[in-house]
Structures are given as structure tokens and as C-alpha cells.
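Lab notebook, bench 4. The sequencing result for the construct came back, and we need a structural model before the next group meeting so we can plan mutations. Quick request posted to the team channel:

Model the 3D structure of this chain.
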Amino acid sequence: MESLQETGIIIFITDPSGANIYIDGVLQSVKTSTSLRVPTGNRTITFTRTGYASYTQVVSGLKKDQVIKVSAILGQTTYIINSGIVICTTANKTSCPTTPVICPTTINPLDYINLIAIINSTIQTTVTIRFTYTLNDTTHYDNTTVNLLTGNNVIYAWSINRIYDVNTTITLLDVSLI
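Done. Here's the predicted structure in C-alpha cell form:
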């Protein structure tokens, strides 16, 4: 007869949610907020999320069928300070403005579009920036992965150079770290 390992239940909660859960150094297949059956005994719980400091807590003596909660407020280490769209005409790319335009705005054929994000990072990390925008009411997502060095107010730009047959309306909906 096979014996079953005794387990307890741990409820995992983070603010913000969506953090990776590691139990004794092993990445779990779910993210916070959730609950899992975990073998009894001492367990090391770690939460990680891009742009946030990791959090580790030791759970001592989890007992059979015991339910405990491990929660954490994750401190942000990398965040977007400001973002926007800068548009240059292809004929005048060298004198491209530095101030983002107010959305919605019209793109002329052959315009050069910079989607920009000003990022503050207190740690060296790699992040993916997602720019969500509409072109004539169709939603687009452009991702760019950047290596952040420790420092403040670092500007990263994702450039789009598309040829349009007619004038197009662009609206930047969201810039986020994913």
C-alpha cells in the first residue's frame, strides 16, 4: 500500500498580484493570488515579479491540513515615470521634437513614430516594455525588451517607421512593464 505525503494549504497573496511563486527554490506553475497544497514541514516561499523586489519568507512547521497565508507587498524597483509618442516627418528626422504629442494625433504618410518610455530603475534588470496603441481604431501591441542599468530617468524608445497610404490617427493607450 502506497503512503500519501501529508500536506497543508498555503494561500499566496501579493500586492500587486501576478507574482511568480517559488517553494523551496522551485518555480510553481501558478502565480499569485492562489492557494496550493504543500508538503508539511518547513518551506521557503519566494515571490518574484518583473520591476519589483523579490520577497522571501520561511514557513516553519506546516502541519497536515493546516491552512496558512503568506502575503507580501512587493516594493517597486523599476517603473515608468512618463511616456508618450513623438512624431517626426521623414523629411525632417534630424530635428525630431523631444516633447510627446497629445493623443489622438494624425500621422501623415511616411511619418517616423517614436513610442517613448522614461523609466526609473533602482536595480539592474531586463524588462519588456509593452506599448499599446490604436491606429485608426485597430489596437496594436509592440513589445521591446531592454536591459536596465541602475540609475534614474533612463529613456527607452521603440520606433515604428511604417508607410501609410493615407493619414492615420494614432492614440497611445498604455505603456506597461510585462
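The two ends are 47 Å apart (CA to CA).
Will bring this to the meeting.
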